[in-house]
Design brief:
Elements: H1 13-20, E1 27-29, H2 30-41, H3 45-51, E2 58-61, H4 66-74, E3 84-88, H5 89-97, E4 105-107, H6 110-115, H7 118-162, H8 165-195, H9 202-228, H10 231-251
Parallel strand pairs: 2-3
Antiparallel strand pairs: 1-2, 3-4
Helix pairs in contact: 3-7, 7-10, 8-9
């Protein structure tokens, strides 16, 4: 499956969580939290990001430890480059379940206090949301494209298993033999007609019946050979399709 590129939050956040984990009953970054939540709720992680794109900024702790975490991160404001959103476990669960609004507790980088006003922050936040939505859209497009090429590969393999080379050669020989027989029967029929002056008797009727049967058999084999004739083109395409799929996977 093609992985979606989501904008990252504060680079130091995961490092702090690993360092402070033993000081809290619960401490988890937002991206890890929703990975577990998506599995437990059987929800698509892309849809979770689409509903609430700010998980990349979030850190989750127990309700009783929110203020403790808030003070601890606030002491690190000088090191922050992006805002951090602090959520209680209950609030994070409500976001996943789509239940009501939550209190958005942000801690902003110190440099923002001096250089960024509230209006500019709202523009940044909106840009983040739009970027996540665009990433979700692109990921779905890549998945659909990959599925298209996978379907072609499966159909090609199925065709080659149904029409192997030996069967193709056998069909060609059968058609050639049938055409020879048909040609001979038609010549014999024409000869009989010339000998009998065009009279229609039992012998000529027999030959006409045989010719008709052979023509029907020829039509049947012709339909089979039409499918088999694609074999050589499919063989050429198989390697190209495999290479194309592998290239697209590596690019993604």
């Amino acid at each position: 499956m093609v992985k979606m590129s989501i904008l990252l939050g504060e680079p130091l956040l995961e490092e702090w969580v690993n360092s402070w984990r033993n000081q809290f009953n619960l401490l988890e970054i937002g991206t890890r939290y929703i990975e577990k939540g998506a599995a437990n709720l059987n929800k698509n992680i892309d849809e979770i990001y689409k509903e609430y794109p700010l998980w990349t900024l979030a850190i989750i702790t127990s309700k009783g430890e929110v203020e403790k975490l808030y003070r601890k991160i606030k002491d690190q404001r000088e090191k922050l480059t992006l805002p951090i959103l602090i959520l209680s476990q209950e609030e994070a669960s409500n976001i996943l379940l789509g239940k009501g609004k939550i209190e958005e507790r942000y801690i902003y980088p110190r440099i923002w206090q001096d250089n960024v006003d509230k209006e500019e922050y709202q523009l940044w936040k909106k840009g983040l949301e739009e970027s996540v939505k665009e990433a979700v859209k692109k990921r779905k497009g890549k998945e659909e494209e990959e599925k298209y090429w996978q379907d072609i590969l499966v159909k090609t393999i199925e065709f080659l298993s149904n029409y192997p080379y030996d069967d193709y050669i056998q069909l060609v020989e059968e058609v050639k033999s049938l055409k020879d027989k048909l040609h001979n029967k038609k010549n014999q029929l024409d000869e009989k007609r010339r000998e009998r002056g065009g009279l229609i008797d039992r012998e000529i009727d027999d030959y006409q019946t045989k010719v008709k049967d052979l023509e029907q058999e020829d039509n049947y084999l012709a339909r089979r050979i039409e499918k088999a004739l694609d074999y050589f083109e499919k063989v050429k395409d198989k390697e190209r399709i495999n290479n194309l799929i592998n290239t697209k996977k590596m690019n993604n």
